[in-house]
């Protein structure tokens, strides 16, 4: 919630970079906290110096949609809290102490108090040295993953990704890198940013290492299966509509016109480009420079002791802190578990229906698609090449019977099998040579049966190029009664007066955006 407020303030004030005051003691606390939860080396690397944080705000700039992001920078990670006090005292600056920071109810506070009794010069420097080695390993893994994404991933406009398993060559990749790679791909397709751990991570590793792949798998909000025609050497990663909606998902966000027209400066892009250039000049070129690969917290500490990164006393003190926090964690977990009741009626993506979307409005659907629609009297007669269709009957004061802008609203949902059956049914409607026959008897308005028939015919041709597994997550627009209005991704619309679009623009880009542990 705190960062969401920061993002909103940054958006309103066109701020691209946010500096926060996390320091070295915070990193030490986080190391103990995560090691007590048996985190791997990537988690033990702590907080990044810079990381890109994305919001649901989007703006239309230079004929393209751009996701609004803030670059979160932690310039004080090399300074201790004692350094902060000295800086403030030396410059006669006052500061505020948060009284809740002393409450033993919170894990960080308990760890902070315990660390306060141990932070001698030797202990502190050795603990920071372990964190530094973990960060170097994290840099190596991130480099490998970025390279794998560029080489082996193709992102399709309909919202799914294709992994080229031959190019990926998973048998040559360390488990930790491959696991992180597949996590990034699944997080991108599903737009769920939760880490993938435990049995799910092992299942995904086993699946991706099996070439050719012959089975399907549902995990972390995604459906994975062999790509049609690839003989199992390519895998599709599609958003699974049969998974429960994340409890904190902002599934539907409507933009104001101000947001759409907002253009941010190129300053942030230049800062990120400079950061990437700096990272490229400080590469961890091979695994021999990255210790602790594929190690859990206990193994990391044991290896750090073996390599003389830490002394025996520091090793013993860290283990003691871990055990103390583990006991708190287990008791708290048991308490929460005993008070929990199973939740009934979990909402799934497939059942999700958005709020009404008025003509001219734009929305973010499931953090994946930017959707807009409007009604227009500008009718093109060249939409269906090679198909006989005259739109002359819409000239003058005639209007299609679906056009009633004052009353017409649309809702967005994902596709269901009935939508494809409906399109097939439309293609079988008889062609009308006499447009007068299509006028409604009482109002004299004209129906769109001829247009929708041809639109459905063209849409079904396009549909054949989209794998069956990927079709279910395609967004559709329906009216208040649930009747199909448009499937923008395949070019179907019921009425020639309707203009609708669905642009695949995930909130968080593939790879999670820019971050640096340097």
UniProtKB/TrEMBL annotation:
InterPro entries: Rossmann-like_a/b/a_fold, TilS/TtcA_N, tRNA_Ile_lys_synt, tRNA_Ile_lys_synt_N
Key words, A-Z: ATP-binding, Ligase, Nucleotide-binding, tRNA processing
Keyword Nucleotide-binding among UniProt keywords: yes
Domain tRNA(Ile)-lysidine/2-thiocytidine synthase N-terminal: 1-113
Swiss-Prot/TrEMBL GO biological process terms: tRNA processing
Known catalytic reactions: cytidine(34) in tRNA(Ile2) + L-lysine + ATP = lysidine(34) in tRNA(Ile2) + AMP + diphosphate + H(+)
Protein name according to UniProt: tRNA(Ile)-lysidine synthetase
Organism of derivation: Gossypium barbadense (Sea Island cotton)
Lineage: Eukaryota, Viridiplantae, Streptophyta, Embryophyta, Tracheophyta
């Amino acid at each position: 919630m705190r960062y969401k407020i920061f993002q909103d303030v940054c958006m309103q004030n066109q701020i691209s970079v946010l500096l926060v005051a996390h320091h070295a003691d915070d990193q030490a606390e986080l190391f103990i906290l995560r090691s007590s939860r048996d985190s791997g080396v990537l988690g033990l690397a702590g907080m990044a110096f810079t990381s890109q944080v994305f919001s649901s705000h989007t703006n239309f700039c230079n004929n393209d949609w751009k996701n609004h992001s803030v670059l979160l920078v932690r310039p004080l990670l090399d300074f201790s809290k004692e350094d902060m006090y000295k800086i403030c005292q030396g410059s006669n600056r006052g500061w505020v102490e948060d009284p809740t920071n002393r409450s033993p109810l919170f894990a960080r506070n308990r760890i902070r108090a315990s660390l306060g009794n141990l932070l001698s010069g030797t202990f502190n420097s050795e603990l920071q040295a372990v964190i530094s080695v973990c960060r170097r390993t994290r840099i190596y893994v991130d480099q490998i993953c970025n390279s794998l994404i560029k080489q082996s991933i193709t992102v399709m406009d309909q919202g799914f990704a294709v992994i080229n398993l031959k190019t990926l060559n998973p048998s040559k990749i360390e488990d930790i890198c491959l696991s992180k790679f597949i996590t990034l791909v699944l997080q991108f397709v599903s737009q769920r940013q939760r880490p993938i751990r435990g049995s799910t991570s092992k299942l995904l590793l086993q699946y991706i290492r099996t070439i050719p792949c012959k089975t399907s798998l549902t995990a972390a909000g995604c459906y994975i299966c062999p790509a049609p025609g690839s003989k199992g050497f390519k895998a599709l990663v599609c958003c699974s509509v049969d998974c429960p909606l994340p409890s904190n998902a902002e599934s539907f966000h409507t933009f104001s016109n101000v947001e759409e027209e907002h253009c941010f400066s190129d300053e942030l892009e230049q800062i990120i480009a400079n950061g990437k250039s700096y990272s490229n000049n400080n590469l961890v070129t091979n695994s021999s420079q990255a210790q602790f690969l594929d190690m859990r917290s206990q193994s990391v500490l044991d290896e750090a002791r073996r390599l003389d990164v830490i002394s025996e006393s520091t090793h013993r003190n860290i283990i003691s802190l871990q055990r103390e926090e583990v006991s708190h964690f287990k008791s708290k977990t048991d308490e929460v578990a005993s008070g929990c009741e199973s939740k009934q009626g979990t909402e799934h993506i497939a059942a999700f229906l958005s709020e009404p979307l008025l003509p001219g409005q734009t929305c973010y659907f499931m953090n994946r698609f930017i959707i807009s629609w409007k009604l227009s009297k500008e009718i093109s007669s060249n939409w269906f090449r090679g198909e006989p269709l005259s739109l002359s009957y819409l000239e003058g004061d005639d209007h299609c019977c679906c056009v009633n802008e004052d009353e017409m609203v649309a809702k967005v949902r994902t596709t269901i099998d009935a939508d494809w059956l409906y399109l097939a049914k439309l293609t079988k409607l008889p062609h009308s040579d006499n447009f007068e026959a299509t006028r409604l008897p009482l109002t004299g308005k004209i129906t769109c049966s001829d247009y929708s028939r041809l639109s459905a015919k063209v849409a079904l041709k396009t549909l054949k190029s989209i794998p069956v597994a990927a079709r279910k997550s395609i967004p559709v627009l329906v009216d208040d009664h649930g009747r199909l209005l448009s499937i923008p991704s395949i070019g179907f619309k019921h009425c020639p007066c309707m203009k609708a679009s669905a642009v695949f623009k995930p909130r968080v880009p593939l790879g999670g955006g820019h971050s640096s542990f340097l």
